[in-house]
Amino acid sequence: MFFSKNKRFSSGGCEYIIAGLGNPGAKYEMTRHNAGFLAVTLLANELGADIKRLKFHSLVAEVKIGDKKCLLMKPQTMMNNSGEAVSEAAKFYKIPPEKVLIIYDDISLEPGKLRIRRKGSAGGHNGIKSIISHLSSEDFPRIKIGVGKKPHPDYDLADWVLSRFPKESEPALKEALESCAEAVRLIVNGQTDKAMNLYNS
Q: What is the 3-state secondary structure (H, E, C) of 124-154?
């Protein structure tokens, strides 16, 4: 069994952080920039957990994936300050960057596509820039969720990522979120290569 249900925090420490990036507040719920929030929420639902405890400037839940105790996080700092929350949790549990898995939106990928990387630069994503700065490392794994490119070059980037997914993209998004949840399980259980082979676009 990959999963065991957790209803409360245990006394032991976490071995892995799984953070989905987004912006807090109802007006951002189904926007492209909140793809990471959507992915972590789906994963929590599959695990029978509620991400509702406030800790590390985030909504969090402690879960087990395989034999690994993991902290699911939805930072509430606003996207551009995500590193404040992630680094606070990483320092508290003494988790190295290699075990801090970040899930976020990518405008270079079409809706429904995923791209998994072991490490890398921010690629212009402000949430990732913040995490790199606060962890002082680029060596953390990440899952990028495609949200589609701007309709034309002059379109304002902020307006694009803060706009909502159109109805016609929802089936592809749902498939991507489900694949993302499976990829998380594989990565946490030491099968990153398999996850990349299965899901990389």
A: CCHHHHHHHHHHCCCCCCEEEEECCCCCCCC
For CA atoms 98, 14, 32, 54, the dihedral sign is negative
Decide if 33 is catalytic.
yes
Residue 18 burial class via C-beta count within 10 angstroms: exposed 0-12, middle 13-18, buried 19 and up: buried
Global pTM value: 0.90
| Nearest alpha-carbon partner for 91 in 38, 39, 31, 14 | 14
Q: Look up residue 112 and give its two tokens.
A: 């429904």
Partnered with residue 54 across adjacent β-strands are 59
In whole numbers, what is the pLDDT of the chain averaged over residues?
Answer: 89
Question: pLDDT tens digits for 105-135?
Answer: 998 898 889 999 999 999 889 999 999 999 9
Give all domains of the chain, ordered by start, each with its CATH number: 3-199 (3.40.50.1470)
CB atoms within 10 A of CB 94: 9
DSSP H or E stretch at residue 104: strand 100-106
